[in-house]
């Protein structure tokens, strides 16, 4: 046994090959002397090493069973080494032959570094084990990734009591207290805490009554560690749920990943006591706990810091199951309290008072009608939101209609058809020309009305020319009675204009580029088109005189 282990009261390094008891950690001879600890090289069995000679490997001694370890040289300088150890480089005789098999070592050859272990070839490093299997997780099985190493603390900060605590919450430190008060060896706890702080604990799997993980020691192979804890029975869970549902703050704290002190003191043993934790490890150390199990317990305290539902899962219930049960219990308690509560007396009036004749006060005078509708508020533009200009237009239109209804008692838009209202909305947009915003508006309104944007643009021009009557002149030809229509042609001839061709309520210029249309309101509406294309667009201002309606289109000589 090394001196350090013997003096501390701790069992030898359970990671070391000399104390594992596995086949790869024993010497090849059943009577060979024990090998030194893992920080030393293997002993040369049954032979003496020759003095160092530069350039040669030296002559190996004749092997024997149970012999005394050879005298190795110190690596690097080739001097005479101490008994029982071989230098890492430049040793003599260690590579010339194997003494443990009883053969005579050959001479010559260049010396090579010794290999660790008792076999001539170096063992293959074990692949680290891991409990990480998120695909297998469920309501009653949760896997948590490994914690990273903690930053090292300065000597000044480590002296304080706050820094000496491993966990960050009171329930996490209660778990650590249960571990430390139930341990039999404080030095194993210190080694286990060091393993936890260095990140030697792999992914942790938590199921009811069990915490499971692989812990890396000083050897490449990890150890499988379990920590068992008794689960609660149905009676304990019933008391816990009643205590949690009694105060809404308890449920809110659990949802916020907090464990109230009052909830932990409700008579149900949520937190473990000093002898409640049952650690088990695959290493050969039979301490309670070994340092690997202590490391897992310390890391479990960090899991409890982040989520107290891990503690409840250890005790036997999953998070969703508990929250559903608390929800049902809270609803039942609220319904029971509502049934037990006496109904409040309804306010009432005595019948004699209600039937007494009363003189009602007169209604207040109506407010004066504002002179004009006010401007709507400014709507901010938001990515993916509605067009603020379209919102402003709709709000302005609604204010104008409300003002007309308030002042005249009728809504000027209430009797419009869908097409007429779409034309009215498009004509109310200020500006001329089809900008990007106007094209989008025209496309939306035309699609809603079942028309094309070109038809809507022509109708907007007619609406701007004469409103609803102007739109009717555009779309509804009619046969006017004799009188005003018949007198229009002589008036045009008197103005030195050519004879216009009549057709129903239309008078068309002989060249086919100007047209007059008589509306049912008695006004003449002027239209223009490319000669010979019959593509008529409203122009100018309506007038009772046909010559006046043509005034805005050009000089008589141009007509």
From TrEMBL:
Residues 266-301 form the SWIM-type domain. PROSITE patterns: ZF_SWIM (PS50966). GO terms for molecular function: zinc ion binding. It comes from Streptomyces guryensis. This is SWIM zinc finger family protein. Keywords: Metal-binding, Zinc, Zinc-finger. Residues 359-386 have a biased composition (Pro residues). Residues 24-39, 85-111 have a biased composition (Low complexity). PANTHER family: SLR1429 PROTEIN.
């Amino acid at each position: 046994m090394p001196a350090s282990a013997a003096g501390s009261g701790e069992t030898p390094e359970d990671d070391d090959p000399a104390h594992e008891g596995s086949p790869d950690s024993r010497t090849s001879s059943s009577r060979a002397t024990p090998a030194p600890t893992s920080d030393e090289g293997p002993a040369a069995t049954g032979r003496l090493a020759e003095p160092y000679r530069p350039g040669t490997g030296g002559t190996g001694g004749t092997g024997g069973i149970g012999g005394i370890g050879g005298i190795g040289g110190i690596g690097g300088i080739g001097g005479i080494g101490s008994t029982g150890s071989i230098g890492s480089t430049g040793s003599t005789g260690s590579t010339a032959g194997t003494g443990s098999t009883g053969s005579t070592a050959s001479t010559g050859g260049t010396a090579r570094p010794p290999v660790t272990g008792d076999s001539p070839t170096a063992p293959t490093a074990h692949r680290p084990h891991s409990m990480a299997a998120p695909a297998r997780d469920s309501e009653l099985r949760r896997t948590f990734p490994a914690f990273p190493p903690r930053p090292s603390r300065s000597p000044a900060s480590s002296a304080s009591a706050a820094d000496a605590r491993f966990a960050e919450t009171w329930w996490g430190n209660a778990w650590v207290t249960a571990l430390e008060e139930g341990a039999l060896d404080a030095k194993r706890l210190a080694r286990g805490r060091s393993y936890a702080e260095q990140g030697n604990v792999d992914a942790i799997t938590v199921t009811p009554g069990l915490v499971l993980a692989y812990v890396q020691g000083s050897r490449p192979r990890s150890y499988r560690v379990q920590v068992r804890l008794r689960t609660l029975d149905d009676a304990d869970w019933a008391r816990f749920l009643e205590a949690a549902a009694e105060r809404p703050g308890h449920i809110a704290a659990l949802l916020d990943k907090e464990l109230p002190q009052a909830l932990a003191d409700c008579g149900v043993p949520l937190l473990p006591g000093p002898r409640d934790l049952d650690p088990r490890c695959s290493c050969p150390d039979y301490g309670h706990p070994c340092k690997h199990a202590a490391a897992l317990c310390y890391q479990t305290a960090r899991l409890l810091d982040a989520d107290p539902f891990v503690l409840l899962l250890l005790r036997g219930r999953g998070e969703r199951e508990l929250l559903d049960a608390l929800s049902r219990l809270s609803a039942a308690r609220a319904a029971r309290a509502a049934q037990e509560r006496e109904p409040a007396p309804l306010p009432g009036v005595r019948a004699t008072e209600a039937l007494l004749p009363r003189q009602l006060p007169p209604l207040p005078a109506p407010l004066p009608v504002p002179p004009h509708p006010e401007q709507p508020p400014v709507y901010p533009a938001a990515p993916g939101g509605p067009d603020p200009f379209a919102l402003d237009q709709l709000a302005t239109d609604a204010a104008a209609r409300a003002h007309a209804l308030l002042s005249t008692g009728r809504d000027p838009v209430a009797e419009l058809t869908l097409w007429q209202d779409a034309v009215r909305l498009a004509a109310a947009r200020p500006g001329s020309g089809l900008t990007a915003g106007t094209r989008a508006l025209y496309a939306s309104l035309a699609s809603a009305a079942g028309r094309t944007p070109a038809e809507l643009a022509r109708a907007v021009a007619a609406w701007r020319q004469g409103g609803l009557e102007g739109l009717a002149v555009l779309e509804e030809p009619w046969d006017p009675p004799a009188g005003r229509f018949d007198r229009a042609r002589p008036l045009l001839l008197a103005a030195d204009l050519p004879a216009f061709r009549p057709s129903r309520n239309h008078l068309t210029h002989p060249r086919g580029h100007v047209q007059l249309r008589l509306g049912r309101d008695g006004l003449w509406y002027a239209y223009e088109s490319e000669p010979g294309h019959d593509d008529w667009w409203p122009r100018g201002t309506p007038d009772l005189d046909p010559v006046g309606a043509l005034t805005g289109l050009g000089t008589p000589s141009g007509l």
